[in-house]
Design goal:
Radius of gyration: 23 Å
Structural class: alpha/beta
Number of helices: 14
Strand content: 5-15%
Number of domains: 2
Order of helices and strands: EHEEEEEHHEHEHEEEHHHHHHHHH
Amino acid sequence: MKHISILVPESSVMQSIADPQYLFSAVNYFMIQSGRKPLFDVQLVGANKAITLNDGRYTVHTEALLDDVKQTDLVIIPALFGDMEHTISLNKKLIPWIIDRYKQGAEVASLCMGAFLFASTGLLSGRKCSTHWGFANLFRSMFPDVELADGRIVTEENRLYSSGGAISYWNLLLHLVEKYTDRETAIRAAKYFAVDIDRNSQSSFAMFQGQKAHPDEVIRQAQEFIEQHIEERPTVEQLAEKFGMGRRTFERRFKQATHNSVLEYIQRIKVEAAKRTFESSRKNITEVMFDVGYTDTKAFRNTFKKVTGLTPVEYRNKYNKQVHLN
């Protein structure tokens, strides 16, 4: 029997508590149907017997308090919402409990923005982690000692698991089901819940908004220049000269402020502009490529796929309804 402890933190997302409970209970049912014994003993665990969520709209009744659970096989940290620093402070009682369970041999998995509470334990220091793409910059600023796996949906290292944004946590849950049971059972669960199993990237969903929450005003001006001249292809030397710096100083300050190199930033800005055009217009690939300053079809295709995980044609077909009306 595998003992699974689903934490119920303050300011957590109700669905990310209910979904893993539902999934592992369903897998137990599948196993009984196939003549096997149920494998999972699932408990909701919290610091209090009743925890209110969503400004009092829901109340979750836990089945065990922290002190009641001395040993478990898997701890699941659900998604959180709100101001992350405040939310972590509300749940500080959970942190030593998570650390102790891990030291006693339990695995720990965070769903979406549960990674913020997970990283607060220190267990992820020097290790990889996934979280929602929209909060990557905040995560990096709060936990610079954790290596954020950009775009990854499932990250696993040393009995520590984390997932990408929103409902992509289903892929992590299915990954755990397969690990604890077998591939056949994981596929059955994926079909039952209509989840695309083995999806490993959230890159195609990400919207690059530029990292401007930093104090370097000159670099912010450089970012705005790049964004306003999307059809141009300035060199790093040209940008550095325009903003009154040597190349190496400009590159260092740009990387420090944005967490991207200058060239990476230019690429991501151009790809984001191309994505928006593919989503909303009938322009062909070549027209969009020229609009964002590319003249080499192969280079544009390779860069676009590197950033989004999809080719330009695949992206347009996925997100542009007009394509399917032709």
